[in-house]
Amino acid sequence: xxxxxxxxxxxLHITVRLPDDHTWVRESLEKACAAEARRQLETAPTPDxxxxxxxxxxxxxxxxxxxxxxxxxxxxxxxxLHYVTGESSRGDRVMLSQIHDWQRRNRTDATPATAxxxxxxxxxxxPFRPS
Length: 131
Fold this sequence. Notes:
The protein is of the alpha+beta class. The chain contains four helices and four strands; from the N terminus they run E-E-H-E-H-H-E-H.
């Protein structure tokens, strides 16, 4: 048996018992679960991936040194590309939101950068990760 319970605005508790194989129960539960999943996805914060300088240059169709020149501009310069500093220049990362902001400020002709699909790792499989 499946129990559906609700509470009205007046505080009245209502419980309905239906057989598990009833199609209305299954369809209702599927719709309710889908609606809740959709609500949670809409309210969840969106990830802001960070990219290395070579990967950012590839996304913006620039040479990596040209991109680094934009990163070295003074803080108040409109063409400056803001980034997250790493322990060394190899560790510098550019957030996707900063890429979009830079494209908007500079009105580039390029299409807005999108988060690319994760790259497939090459080489031998890790002995520590089950396949």
